[in-house]
Design a protein that fits this description.
Helix content is about 30%, strand content about 25%. It contains 17 helices and 24 strands. A hairpin with a 4-residue loop joins strand 2 and strand 3. It starts with 19 loop residues before the first strand and ends in a 9-residue tail after the last helix.
């Protein structure tokens, strides 16, 4: 017999009754039924009930066993009495009478319980992550992740892609986040960088003639943490193709994403038609470039109804350049209580409040109510109602100013309204391509232009587009949003050196600097670069959605905490003096 097990803790059933078996695993829990000891023995695969009575030759040793001890048992498989069968587990028809036991690893008193779903502070869970990962939910999440990645690989291979690995140590790149720098011992004073993405390398592969590339790639970005973003590293399905248009990329990745979400979505609906929405429209309708389309609410501009109206706040606001009034329709939200609650929400978000109108049955039919309705009069109110296609029992909320000042809060308010009024459809994955992103953004304080997104995207219109207003230039750049999260980001690449130099020049990077920082790619593009494009899908975020988790750390094996610390391994840590000397570095203490 094998040294540790003849079967896993999920394999035994009624057909094994009478056999002598060997199992190894962890003591999930111990139950003492008046001289009869029952142990739920757990391994990665499942659970088996093992038991002993005073007739067992090792009963005294079994009495000493405690929760989470790692043990090996030998015993006889017995059929459970029909009234004691547990149909919830595969091994529920049998139990194993223990003849021999070996303690493989004792456990100290646990800092957190593995059995059950008790809540523990995240700091405790991350410090003792190896225990946290023993919990059933975490085992399922990590298995889901592994199976999903395997499925992605199969799907990519099946459509003609090949997997290649790109370097982990490379040069710094301005991709929108801070690099993790790595000092060079052989070249004192110089630094490598961990790649924010395999961007340049995958483009160089296309120049090299590799037509279809993919990789499950680790990426490193020194970012501020969020619930849906790791502060240090993450994994993505990275892909690139030659001789393709934007639509070709969409047509390639859509079946892969649909297939994965159908396979692992637990029966939830997966939208089959994915709309393409311009960045400008997404900002207007949803207040975000990653909209949750399960929520049917679309915001609209209603500025004309407030110009010269009796509502002085909005009327005066609209006299300023670049301002507008937007309405958030709220079907079924027509009660003063709900409207007041949403007004309080806006105040918590840092705005003075949200104006509102709601419609109800009056003495002479439908009437508009609320402070705004009284100020602007029945004709304007009725025009707003008709534009928004609302009726009795509905409401609308209003925000005004320069869109950048209120757009984010408007998007949050739309989400809250959809959730609270039950308008947001559950058990559904709703996808949308967001396209036509602006290439540049302007710093409001300095007026300096910089890249708004990926600097290697092809501008729509090519060189001609770069001769006009830079802020009007859009790119062949796209994101895929699902249920309020960005899952995929990509672009058709700028493969022409002259267009690349001009694009970087507008952002303040001279040709010499571009050649210095991106010399490999610039040089390569001078030798017959094909048109190419691709995208990257966030593995961690996909698993988070499929596992129905709100926090990305629930689907990462060993994540950092919100301060980018690994509490289990005590990272980051101070280097030894010898290490610093060898690298030619000195740490300057920061003022506390």
């Amino acid at each position: 017999m094998h040294a540790y097990r003849s079967h896993t803790c999920a394999e035994l059933n009624k057909s094994n009754v009478g056999e002598t078996v060997r199992l190894s695993g962890w003591v999930h829990r111990v139950r003492d039924h008046g001289g009869l000891l029952f142990i739920d023995l757990r391994d990665h695969y499942g659970m088996t009930q093992v038991m002993a009575d005073p007739d067992s030759p090792v009963f005294a040793e079994i009495e000493k066993v405690r929760s989470e001890w790692c043990i090996r048992i030998d015993g006889n498989v017995l059929a459970r009495d029909e009234s004691l069968v547990n149909p919830k587990i595969p091994t529920g028809e049998i139990e194993v009478f223990i003849r021999d036991i070996e303690v493989l690893g004792k456990s100290e008193e646990l800092p957190l319980m593995v059995f059950g779903e008790q809540e523990y502070p995240e700091e405790t869970r991350l410090r003792y992550r190896y225990l946290d990962l023993r919990r059933e939910k975490m085992q399922k999440n990590m298995l889901l992740r592994s199976n999903m990645v395997a499925s992605i690989r199969r799907r990519m291979w099946d459509i003609g892609f090949n997997e290649y690995q790109t370097p982990i140590i490379t040069a710094s790149s301005p991709e929108g986040a801070r690099d993790f720098l790595v000092p060079s011992r052989l070249h004192p004073g110089k630094f490598y960088a961990l790649p924010q993405a395999p961007q340049q390398f995958k483009q160089l592969m296309m120049v090299s003639g590799f037509d279809k590339y993919f990789q499950i790639a680790p990426c490193f970005r020194d970012e501020d943490p969020r619930a849906d973003r790791s502060p240090t590293d993450f994994y993505q399905l990275d892909m690139e193709m030659s001789f393709v248009t934007q639509q070709d990329v969409f047509d390639t990745i859509e079946p892969v994403m649909k297939g994965v979400f159908e396979e692992f979505g637990g029966g939830r609906k997966v939208d089959q038609t994915w709309p393409q929405i311009s960045y400008k429209d997404a900002a207007l309708w949803y207040g975000t470039d990653k909209p949750d389309l399960r929520n049917p609410i679309k915001m609209q501009v209603v500025s004309d109804h407030f110009r010269g109206s009796g509502f002085a706040i909005f009327a005066k606001l609209l006299e300023q350049d670049g301002t507008e009034i937007r309405a958030i329709p709220a079907p079924t939200g027509g009660s003063r209580k709900f409207c007041d609650r949403m007004n309080a929400f806006a105040q918590k978000e840092g705005l003075p409040g949200m104006g509102y109108i709601f419609w109800r049955e009056g003495a002479d039919g439908m009437e508009a109510a609320g402070p705004l309705a009284k100020n602007i009069g029945p004709e304007r109110t009725e025009a707003i109602r008709q534009q928004l296609e609302l009726g009795v029992g509905d409401a609308a909320f209003f925000l005004g100013g320069k869109p950048k000042t209120f757009q984010t809060v408007a998007g949050k308010a739309r989400n809250v309204i959809g959730e609270e009024l039950g308008l947001t459809e559950q058990d559904r994955f709703a996808f949308a391509w967001i396209v036509d992103f602006p290439i540049y953004q302007e710093d409001e304080e300095t007026g300096k232009l910089d890249f708004d997104h990926n600097p290697f995207s092809m501008p729509k219109g090519g060189m001609d587009a770069l001769q006009g207003d830079p802020l009007a230039v859009t790119g062949y750049q796209y994101d895929l949003a699902c249920n309020g999260y960005e899952l995929v980001s990509g672009a058709i690449r700028n493969h022409k050196p002259e267009i690349m130099f001009k694009a970087f020049e507008i952002a303040g990077y001279g040709e010499e600097e571009v050649r210095k920082r991106f010399g490999g790619m610039v040089n390569a593009f001078q030798y017959g670069a094909p048109p190419h494009g691709g995208c990257a899908a966030g593995i961690d975020r996909m698993v988070m959605l499929l596992a129905d988790e709100a926090n990305i750390r629930e689907v990462i094996m060993f994540p950092m905490n919100q301060r980018a610390e690994d509490l289990m391994m005590a990272a980051p840590s101070e280097p030894m003096a010898e290490q610093l000397m060898e690298l030619g570095l000195r740490v300057i203490p920061q003022d506390q």
